[in-house]
Specification:
This protein is mostly beta strands. It has one helix and seven strands. Helices cover 7% and strands 69% of the residues. The protein has a seven-stranded antiparallel beta sheet, with no helix packed on it.
């Protein structure tokens, strides 16, 4: 089962992909990337003519470890703002 969070996280990137992140004060180390995809928000640009800049969101579904716990997490980067969010976590 997955849970939706949408909470900000601090992410360290190497080679164009996340390698670790901090969520709720806890450090998570990425063991492997399970999936990576990009979505665009062209619909927003059509609705809001004032929208500028990149309209991409980049997603990574990863396996990460904190302490002795391993989990699957979905990180999202909004390229327009540079903000990272933890979108989902799986039990």
């Amino acid at each position: 089962m997955s849970r939706v969070y949408g909470e900000p996280v601090d992410v360290v990137v190497s080679g164009g992909r996340p390698v670790r992140f901090v969520w709720r004060g806890q450090l998570y180390v990425v063991r492997r990337v399970l999936e990576h995809w990009v979505t665009t928000r062209e619909w927003r640009r059509r609705v809001d003519r004032e929208a500028e800049g990149p309209t991409e969101r980049r997603f990574w579904r990863i396996e990460a470890v904190t302490g002795d716990q391993v989990g699957v997490y979905e990180l999202r980067l909004d390229t327009a703002t540079g903000r990272w969010l933890l979108s989902r976590a799986w039990d």
